[in-house]
Amino acid sequence: MTDKQHSKLNMYQTVLDTCKEFEPVYGKVPFFRRSIDELTDIVSTIRQTEQQQSSVMVKGTTQDKNNAENLLVEQSVRIAGALYVYAFTQGNNNLQFKVSVNKHMLYRMHNNDLLAKTKEIASESSAHASELEEFGISRTDIDALNQAIVAYETQIVSPRMSITERKQHTENLVYLFAAANSVLFDKIDKLIGIFKQTHPDFVSRYKSARNVINTSPRKKSEA
Q: Interhelix angle for 139-156 vs 111-127, to 10°?
């Protein structure tokens, strides 16, 4: 949440705490009581949404993707190198072209292009698995490459999904704060005046609680 939203949430809670002290007073006015209950529910939902928003770790999932990419590139370059030498000894120019890669080239590729290229390397290594043993590549190495491909493919969408989820929570908070403001401006603020003559202390305390305290950092004014 933003600093402004935190300030407003503190104000909402202060209003609710103040009204709770005067529940015997406003409890005799059904619509006023329902409005307080409505604001209470919205504040509770805001806090839940804030927790959900905070639990979405965008940077963490991005780091997981980077780790999966590093492993995939390492495995691919190692096997591609052996495939290249095998292709060279066999005079297989087409295979040489397919597996002629290096780390820099792979890292520069788009996610889907990297997947396509590493899957091609994995496919060729599986097709020549028995021959590659002579060049230091075992079937276990090929299996490890395929596992790295699956792991990377899973991670590709993780940061995007996390960003989308966090964005949804952020948008939900905007609607919730708008709803809370409406309950205050259009309902409670308009009705609080009915208690002015009978319970002026309630009205005074309520208006004091309605003041939003800005907790956001402020720039010092220049002399």
A: 160
Give the angle 43-44-49 at the CA atoms, nearest 5°: 95
Q: Measured between alpha carbons, how far is 190 from 203 in angstroms, rounded to an integer?
A: 11
Nearest to 42 by CA among 166, 168, 178: 178
The DSSP call for residue 29 is S
Q: How far apart are CA 8 and CA 193, in angstroms?
A: 22
Measure the CA–CA gap between 106 and 174, rounded to whole angstroms: 41
Contact 98, 79 (CB under 8 A): no
- What is the distance between the alpha carbons of residues 140 and 91, in angstroms, rounded to a whole number? 26
Q: Distances in Å between the alpha carbon of 41 and those of 37, 68, 115?
A: 6, 42, 47
What is the Cα gyration radius of the chain? 31
What is the distance between the alpha carbons of residues 182 and 101, in angstroms, rounded to a whole number?
60
Element (H, E) at 33: helix 30-55
pLDDT tens column, 139-197: 999 999 999 999 998 887 655 666 667 788 888 999 999 999 999 999 999 999 999 99
pLDDT, tens digit (0-9, with 9 covering 90-100), for 87-137: 999 999 999 999 999 999 999 998 889 999 999 999 999 999 999 999 999
Q: Give the lowest-confidence range in 42-51, 73-82, 121-130.
A: 42-51
Read off the amino acid at residue 5. Answer: Q
